[in-house]
Fold:
Amino acid sequence: MREKQGFIQKQVDSELGIEYSNYNKMENGAREPSVAELQKLAKFYNISVDELLNPEEPMPKEVFIANQSTSEQMKLIQELDDEDKQTIFHLIDKMLTNKKFKDFFHKNIAAL
Structure:
C-alpha cells in the first residue's frame, strides 16, 4: 500500500511516530504491529483497520432489504443461517398476528 501510494518508509514512520527500524520490521513481517500502530496506519491511509489487514478482500456493503422486490427480499432472507431465518419468520408471524387483532378490534368497535 505504501509503495502503491508513492511513499518511502521514512515518510510513513515519521508521520506515524514509529522508529524506522520498527516500521521496517513491521513491513517485512519480522514484527507484528500493535493495535495503536494499526490504528495509526489505517488513519494515515484513510481506510479501516479491517481494510488494512485484508487488502485483497472487498469490504461487504450494507444491505437494504426494504428497497428490494418481494422475491429479492425472500432470496436474501434465504441466505441467512437457519436460526436467523427462524427469528425473522417469528417476527413476521408476531407482526401479522398483531395486525389481525388490531383489525378485529377496530372492526368490532366500529360495529358498536
In short: Helices lie at 9-16, 20-27, 35-45, 49-53, 70-78, 82-111.
